Amino acid sequence: MQTDIDILENEILKQYPEVLDILLRDHTTHKNIFWATDDYENLGKDYHFDAQILPELITGKNGSIIMPRVQKDILLQQSRSRDMAEVFTPSWICNAQNNLIDNAWFGRENVFNTELKKSNGFKWNINKDIVIFPENKTWRDYVKDTRLEMACGEAPYITSRYDTTTGKFIPVENRIGILDRKLRVISENVESTGEWLKWTQMAYKNTYGFEFHGDSLLIAREAMLVTFIDNYKEKFGKEPLLKSIQYIAYIISWNVWQMDGLKGVVPNTCGEITITDIDLFGNKKTESSFCRGCMDNNILRHNGTYCLIKDWSNKDLTTGKKGRKIRFVDLLKNMR
């Protein structure tokens, strides 16, 4: 099990063919995710805000470019907090808030752990007893319960491989993320590799997150992938097959996506639109219009590229296969 918090792209490239390519995909644009930050522009035009993150830009001699926030220069951390409101949450807060969700779901407290206040800060004690489910719910219901981390950063609410504020590594048995809890109950209730993989894929298909910055998004995706490998090894004492790793990476690439959370679109895709019409006499008439969503602060009226996600439980009308593509913003529309 990897105990270094920085997941190295060179190692992914070497050990797991095609996986890095999958983790860099953007299914809305059919391109790669892009930097969406000016932090790397000093490295050249390929690292500018709108440039795609390509494997060759972050591997080989460039293999240490992307790193967790806690390992970045303190001035860079401060500038991202100031300019983009990037805030990272201590693990004990992630745990407390995830506990509130589970308290409501289970109808009781301290299901997975007990929160503690100690002299050196907040901690938690893991409840090592097998999780008991309410009479009207099962462990399968818990795995299929759909949850979302908004503006996920490095995804500390989804998987707590390390504390994003201190950089301290957290062993599998002590993790408190949304996905960590789902994987725990799966491991407690199934024994065969096939059944474990089936329900773990279900857990990933029901865990979502979005992020603006491309570097943080990639770190989040990598953390979720390594969490899968860690838990498989913890349960079965060996690594999963490459095809299983690739499929989990594919699910992650759909479920954790790049988006401007205030607009529901791919970052920086809203803008002025110019339309030119030619009448019967050959006269040209040009009209320009600005993004109404940006002007009115209405998430349903943007002219940018609205982000697509997958509803894995329903069939796609075109292919007939499970996994219907939907616009994320349409979920908000249905809630109004």
- Characterize the overall form: globular
What is the total tally of β strands? 11
The major β-sheet equals: 3 strands, parallel
Structural class: alpha/beta
Order of helices and strands: HHEEHHEEHEHHEHHEEEHEEH
Total of DSSP H or I helical runs spanning 4+ residues: 11
Helix fraction by DSSP (H/I, runs of at least 4): 25-40%
How much beta, percentage-wise? 15-25%
Gyration radius from CA atoms, angstroms: 22 Å
Span from first to last CA? 45 Å
Mean pLDDT: 90
With strands numbered from the N-terminus, the spatial order across the biggest sheet is: 5-6-7
Low-confidence spans: pLDDT under 50, at least 5 residues?
A: none
Short description, anyone?
This protein is α/β, with parallel strands linked by helices. It is built from 11 helices and 11 strands. 36% of the residues lie in helices and 16% in strands.
Explained architecture:
This protein has 336 residues and is an alpha/beta fold. Helix content is 36%, strand content 16%. It has helices at 9-15, 19-23, 74-84, 91-106, 139-144, 178-189, 193-205, 214-236, 242-255, 292-296, 328-335, and strands at residues 25-26, 31-32, 113-118, 121-126, 147-149, 207-211, 256-258, 273-278, 284-289, 308-315, 322-327. The strands form 5 sheets. A 3-stranded parallel sheet has the order 5-6-7. It has a two-stranded antiparallel sheet with strand order 1-2. Strand 10 and strand 11 form a beta hairpin. Helix 7 (193-205) packs parallel to helix 9 (242-255) and helix 8 (214-236) packs antiparallel against helix 9. The longest helix is centred in the last third of the chain and has 23 residues, at 214-236. The radius of gyration is 22 Å and the shape is globular. It starts with 8 loop residues before the first helix and ends with a helix. The mean pLDDT is 90.
